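Problem 12. The chain below contains 370 residues. Write out its predicted structure in token notation.
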Amino acid sequence: MCSRRETTDSSDVKKGRSLRDKILVSFPLCDLKEEDLIQNPHFCKLLASLTKHVDQTGLSEQLKTELDQAEEKLRCQMCHWLQFESLHRGLEEMIQDHLVKKQYTDVSPEEKMFFETMEKCLLVAQCVKHLDPSSTTHQDRPPLLGLTPQHVMHLLPPEEVVQKMKKSSSTQLEQHLKRKCLSLLTYYDPELEDESETLKTMKLSQLSAQLNKDKKRAEGLKGIHQENRALLQRQSQVYISELTECIQLFETFISHHRMKVQADLDRKKVDYFEQKCVLLHQKLKSELADLQLQTYTPGTIAAHKKIRKELESEVKACKEEKQSLESKLSSFGILGEEFEALAKEYCRIQEEIKVKNWAIDEFRLYNEKL
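Solution.
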């Protein structure tokens, strides 16, 4: 019974993981995380139901169909426009090549007449296109410089010259396009550069199929790249979570180990600094004794010690006297301003007594001299 339950639980886990993988692949642009899907199972089921109705870009089936139809219509119009645009550019490139060729080599009169006629026809057609109002321009807009398409049509070469140019233009254009296709082929496959024209022509007929094949292969690789990107994202998230747990465990181990050995380390540091202080004190005393011996004689040092001792005793007596006087002054300061006036009067009387005693002494000395 227990084994059946474990088997059921493991199958549910595998089913849930496959469902989450399917959702992550189906919505690569939503930046979803597997943890979010695990924490929100109802949201996971909602996304699983949405996968039946929307594609990877988030478009519904109906909107996707309308978008495909619009893209197909746009593609047809673009192909139609590209046909005329490639024809026009091909003719212009032929004219440019002729102008370059004319600068370096001599050309026949027929070739010169052909390209001059083509250039005039293209210029007139371009002017007519700008002067002819269409659905993309304002119908009530006045013509440019007062010109109409009929004003420039008479600039065309004679009809027989134009017809002659049209007959040979298809052959010339075909040769020009063939040269461009061969250059494209050699660019796509440089190994065919030195091959014969027959082989190049045969390879050219297979170029379109080869390009389609390469395009499909690129699209397949793009899909694989998206799947690998989603897988790498999930693996990165798992790796980051595991790495975070490892870092937390490592920090816990470091803090525990540090608390365990910190007391012993502090005690050893204290002992070291104590011994270092004792050593420095002994070294300082040794340096001081050495300096005294280098500066004074032993008798001078003994005399200095005796003088220092007497001076220290006198300083001590002065300090004691100072403390006693300060205590007396502090006791006198308690009496207030009246005692201060009496003290000043006392000081004045003492000064007068000193002056009178000095006068008496001077008078006595003067009588003794007489």
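Discussion. The two ends are 148 Å apart (CA to CA). Students who got a different answer should revisit the alignment rule from Section 12.3.
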